[in-house]
Amino acid sequence: MKVMNYKDAELKAEKAAKGAGIRWLLSERDGETGMAMRVIEIEAGGQTPDHAHSWEHQVFMLKGEGRVIVEGETRAIAPGSAIFVAPGENHTFHNDSGETMEFVCMIPVSATKAYEH
Amino acid sequence: MKVMNYKDAELKAEKAAKGAGIRWLLSERDGETGMAMRVIEIEAGGQTPDHAHSWEHQVFMLKGEGRVIVEGETRAIAPGSAIFVAPGENHTFHNDSGETMEFVCMIPVSATKAYEH
To answer: Going by C-beta distance under 8 Å and a sequence separation of 6 or more, which residues neighbour residue A34?
Structure first.
């Protein structure tokens, strides 16, 4: 078992993102697992880069309001939104609200080596 | 891509749980994925059964306060708690607050066949 508060994980700046950071919560460091849990934080007016990779995202929105754009299609997102970005899909998250946007972002554990964590 | 609000997923009663329900948000039905996202809701004073299975959980607490008991060890949980339950560990979630407890509960997609969804 591991229990932690997400605010106790260091907020690391996300390179290539405008005003975004990442907190690593759960990963292969915590035991036998097939996935990793992070919280992404995007400052008011900030965004993540439009990019694609071979692994999926499963996202749950906690705070803030804005848009996700996947393969050119725009959808509104707000607290309570669940978002699936399939492997290979281009995606970018925009915070259009006046507060920090926060969301849980799950990836397969096989993809964690692509990130500093 | 899929975007939905978690409240738009049907709340199904959890058998063998006292006052608990589950909303299925993302799974193999939504495309190529290695995991599934659900939200578990536990009424005030309710709990999930103490049980174990061969798959892990990665949990993020949204609402309510209480305890998780894993292999006999009790830890307090509240909004913002990230919880890892390793494969095979006995676990039960208790809602000790006066409001409904809600948490995101991730499982590997290989385990979804163990659940009605």
So the answer is: A108, A109, B34, B35, B56, B108
> What is the C-alpha separation between A111 and B17, in angstroms, rounded?
35
Q: Is A111 exposed, middle or buried (0-12, 13-18, 19+ CB in 10 A)?
A: middle
What gap in Å lies between CA B58 and CA B67, rounded to an integer? Answer: 15
For B18-52, the pLDDT digits (tens) are 789 999 999 999 999 999 999 999 999 999 999 99
Mean pLDDT confidence for A95-117: 95
Residue A30 tokens, joined: 């915590």
User: Hey, what amino acid is at B95?
Assistant: N
Q: What is the pTM of this model?
A: 0.97
Residues 6-35 of A with CB under 8 A from B: 6-7, 9, 25-26, 30-35
- SS3 for A111? helix
Cβ-defined contact of B26 to A71 (cutoff 8 Å): no
* Type of residue found at A27: S
